[in-house]
Amino acid sequence: MPKGTLASFVVFDRGTGRTLLSHRPREVFRSASVVKILIALDHLERNGLRAADRPLLQAMLRSSDDKAATAFWKRGGQGEIVRRAARRLGLTEAAPPPADKPGFWGYTALSAGDLVKTYRYLLDRAPRGHRDFVMGQLRRATRCGTDRFDQSFGIPRALPRPWAVKQGWSGFGLRPAEPCRAAAASGASFRNVDLGIGRPVLHTTGVVGGDDRRIVVVLTLHPAGTSFRTATARLTALTREVHRAAG
Length: 247
What we know:
By secondary structure, the chain is an alpha+beta fold. Helices cover 36% and strands 17% of the residues. The longest helix is centred in the last third of the chain and has 18 residues. The protein is globular and about 45 Å long.
């Protein structure tokens, strides 16, 4: 990664229970849309899977729909969602958005280590119905987000199927310079950490391989003004290299 770009990554093998590769696993990033996994899990824990909520949950998880995330964020008490998740999942770096931005769910603080714990909880401890639903949506991640950003960077572009992913992006403007053309489907108290506000973040997270064997998390913070095309190319190359280095 070029100078001025911060990266953190973890590759975890669920079969052996071992971390195969890691770099700065406790580095804090603003979550962008990756927090939608926590929003979905919290909603399911408190309310179950109700038919009326299913379309919104599907859009939020498959196509990273922001309006759906905002609706569930408000219903769940905003930052309380993150606090509950931190206690339940044992997250150590997770924290709600800054106190002056309580509605900005994408400003949740998370680390790569926290996200490995999140996937491990989802796959090994969450109620089976919740696991099957959330993982089913992540396996069906659409190429385009509902905001027309192409979310096929990182794991989907670098690694062969099978995989299930939740991507995150923030700081590239409200509309992509090159709109995606494929049809999209309809902790603790806040700590004073640097969330990189004003600089673009781009994350790829998910599970890879048969039996969801590997958890792969790659988080990046880019210099201000970095284009979406440049950032996705860098992240995809890094993801491919990280997975190869893990053996």
